[in-house]
Amino acid sequence: MTAGEDPASAGGRAGTLRELGERGLIERVRRRLGPPGPGVVVGIGDDAAVVAVGDRTLLLTTDTLIEGVHFRRQTATLRDIGAKALAVNVSDIAAMGGEPRWALLALALPPDLPVTDVDELYAGLGETAAQQGVSLIGGDTCAAPAGLVLGITVVGEVQGAPLRRTGARPGDVLLVTGTLGGAAAGLAVLEGGMGSAPPDAVDAVCRAHRRPTPRVAEGRAILASGVATAMIDLSDGLATDLGHLLEESGVGAEVRLADLPIAPATRAVARARGVDVVHWAVSGGEDYELLFTADGPHAAALARDVSAKTGTPVRIVGEIGPATRGLRFLDATGRRHAVRAGFDHFA
Asked: What percent of the chain has pLDDT over 70?
């Protein structure tokens, strides 16, 4: 199909978005638009677009957060919502080894929203901006018929070539920063109650859900190592986001479930709720950790180096193989373990 051609006329029924899925929609748009223009180093299909401007390499990313889909005011303060909205955009810059610089905010607000609530929203945005060295330099406001909508664009910079989703190779090792499943555990508590879970564990997982930490320093250290080959941030869950990386790189992978890093608080909440904690770690989403690949002989040293420089633990969780292997999750005995896919907006 050529750029500008209607994908439906290029063979096959268009169907519905539920049938196509989020990834299918992205691919359909990418085919329709064709190759990017001059100066665009990376277009659709990665955590951020990459644009060369003179001797600078800029990273551009945008996300939309909608009340009732991405957040509920019953389970998070407006300060938390503002802080998280910017953090998840900054995470995309981190996933390419960059440093965030500037942000634009498009904000749709119900006219009957108290002005003090808007102040709280901006207070949260300001907290993340200060922590990450981001300047909020403009945007747009309009009325919304119901609920809040935040659209944030972040522009960052990267030294040299960014890490992309496309560079993983058979023989590489798969690594992840931090811990997995905490945000999903927090959401479960906020929407279903704490049950018999210890209060300190509840506090930890609720904070993981409400206030994710973008791994900017970690991403820059991973890129600077020179031995990492691909990277993505974990927004929609390990199963889904690893699938994106494998598809873009044209490879397969095996993940050892026993090696996934899961915090004691997340395990405690899972036990109290009678949930398999592996489900949260693999399919829960919103952890905003970095999943990356590295040359096998150098992977362990890279994990130690990133941890030493940032204080964030890094764990080896699997290996990259040929595309024919697909994506396999293995239990402690080496047998394949079925897992559910992560988040898809149109599923």
From this structure: 94
Single-letter code of the amino acid located at 93: I
Phi and psi, residue 271, nearest 5°: -60, -45
pLDDT average, residue stretch 62-88? 93
Average pLDDT of the residues in 42-50: 87
CATH domain 173-330 topology = Phosphoribosyl-aminoimidazole Synthetase; Chain A, domain 2 (3.90.650)
3-state secondary structure of 318: strand
Cα angle for residues 125, 126, 127 (degrees, 5° grid)? 95
DSSP code string of 83-105:
HHHHHHHHHHHHTTT-EEEEEEE
The model carries a pTM of: 0.90
Task: With both helix axes pointing from N to C terminus, report the angle between 115-132 and 78-94 in degrees, rounded to the nearest 10.
Answer: 30
The DSSP annotation for 244-301 comes to HHHHHHTEEEEEEGGGS---HHHHHHHHHHT--HHHHHHH------EEEEE-GGGHHH
Structure tokens at 78: 């407006």
Nearest alpha carbon to residue 169 among 46, 299, 293, 17: 293
- The larger pLDDT score, comparing residue 289 to residue 193, is at 289
Question: What are the residue ranges of CATH 3.90.650.10 in the chain?
Answer: 173-330
The total of other beta-carbon atoms located within 10 Å of residue 311's CB is 9
Residue, of 273 and 34, whose pLDDT is higher: 273
CA 34 – CA 312 distance, rounded (Å): 39
Mean pLDDT of 267-277: 95
Compute the average pLDDT of residues 76-97.
Answer: 97
The domain 47-157 having CATH identifier 3.30.1330.10: the answer here is: yes
Locate CATH 3.30.1330.10 in the chain: 47-157
